[in-house]
Write a structure and sequence with these properties.
The chain is α+β, with helices and mostly antiparallel strands. The chain has one domain (3-252). Helix content is 46%, strand content 13%. The chain contains 9 helices and 8 strands. It has helices at 30-54, 77-88, 94-111, 115-120, 127-138, 159-162, 190-199, 215-221, 231-252; strands at 3-12, 15-24, 27-28, 74-75, 146-147, 150-151, 210-211, 229-230. The strands form 4 sheets. Strands 1-2 form a two-stranded antiparallel ribbon. Strands 3-8 form a two-stranded antiparallel ribbon. The protein is globular and about 45 Å long. The N and C termini lie far apart (43 Å).
C-alpha cells in the first residue's frame, strides 16, 4: 500500500512541534496508523521533556529502571490487537515464553481477586480505577515484555509507555503516589485520543482502555475494530481528538 511522508505542525504553548511521519494513503484500520501516532507521541513527549529540563526538572527515567513496567498499563484497543499480532509473530520458543508470562500475570491477578475489575476496566482514571491500579502494582507483576529490567519491544512499546516520564527521584517509583511521583505534563494524551477515536462517540467517559496484561485475551475476543478508513482522514480525526482534549484541559484549569 502506498504511503506518503506527511509533515504536521502542532501549535503548543507558544511553540510549534513539527512531526514527520509516514501515513498509508488507502483504507486502513487503526492498527496500521499506530506507527504514525507513536511518532506523534514521541514528538510531544520530547517537547514536554525539553520544557521540563528548561524549568530545572530533569527526567529521572533511565535504561534499566523497570519500576513503571509493573504498572497496569492502559492501551488503546488497536494497540491490544497489534500486540497480539506481535506476539504471534515471535519465533519459538520465545513466543511460548511470552505467552506464559501473560498467563502468569493473569494467574497472579486472579489469585488477588482483581480479574473481574480488570476485565471491566475502561475509561479515564477515576477513584476506583486508581485503587485497582495501585492494588495491581503492589503485586509486583512484571510486564510480559520486561527482560533484565528493560523493555524487550522498545520500538513497538505502547503509547502510554512512551508518555510516562517522571522528574521525581527514581526510588519513589517503587511505591508511587500522587505526592511522591511527579510526572512530566503533556499537552495531550495520544493514547487516550486513539482509544476515543476508536470508540467513535462523543462521550470521553465511555472510552475503552485495555489493560496490557489482558491484551491477548481481549484481542482474541475483539479481532476487528471499526471499518477501515483512508489513512489521512483517520489521522485528522485522531488529531481532532487532541484539540478537543486540550480544550477540556483548559476548561478544567
Amino acid at each position: 500500500m502506498e504511503t506518503r511522508r506527511l509533515t504536521v505542525e502542532l501549535g503548543l504553548s507558544g511553540s510549534v512541534v513539527r512531526v514527520e511521519m509516514d501515513v498509508p494513503m488507502g483504507d486502513v484500520p487503526m492498527e496500521r496508523l499506530l506507527p504514525a501516532l507513536q511518532t506523534t507521541a514521541d514528538a510531544l513527549v520530547s517537547f514536554s521533556a525539553r520544557n521540563s529540563v528548561a524549568e530545572g526538572k530533569p527526567i529521572s527515567c533511565a535504561a534499566g529502571c523497570g519500576a513503571c513496567c509493573r504498572q497496569l498499563v492502559p492501551i488503546a484497543p488497536a494497540e491490544a490487537r497489534q500486540l497480539a499480532v506481535l506476539v504471534e509473530g515471535l519465533a519459538e520458543p520465545r513466543r511460548s515464553v511470552v505467552r506464559e508470562r501473560f498467563a502468569e500475570a493473569l494467574r497472579r491477578a486472579g489469585e488477588a481477586g482483581l480479574l473481574p475489575a480488570l476485565k471491566a476496566r475502561g475509561g479515564p482514571a477515576d477513584g476506583a480505577a486508581e485503587e485497582i491500579s495501585l492494588a495491581y502494582f503492589q503485586l509486583g507483576i512484571p510486564c510480559p515484555f520486561l527482560e533484565a529490567e528493560s523493555c524487550s519491544i522498545y520500538e513497538d512499546r505502547p503509547i502510554a509507555c512512551r508518555e510516562y516520564l517522571v522528574t521525581s527521584p527514581p526510588a519513589n517509583c517503587a511505591a508511587p503516589t500522587r505526592e511522591s511521583t511527579e510526572m512530566v505534563h503533556l499537552p495531550t494524551r495520544v493514547c487516550a485520543a486513539v482509544a476515543w477515536e476508536e470508540e467513535g462517540g462523543e462521550d470521553f467517559s465511555k472510552t475503552t482502555l485495555v489493560p496490557l496484561v489482558l491484551s491477548l485475551l481481549w484481542a482474541a475476543k475483539n479481532p476487528r475494530g471499526r471499518d477501515p478508513r483512508p489513512g489521512p482522514e483517520l489521522l485528522r480525526s485522531v488529531y481532532a481528538r487532541f484539540a478537543h482534549d486540550r480544550t477540556r484541559e483548559r476548561k478544567r484549569g
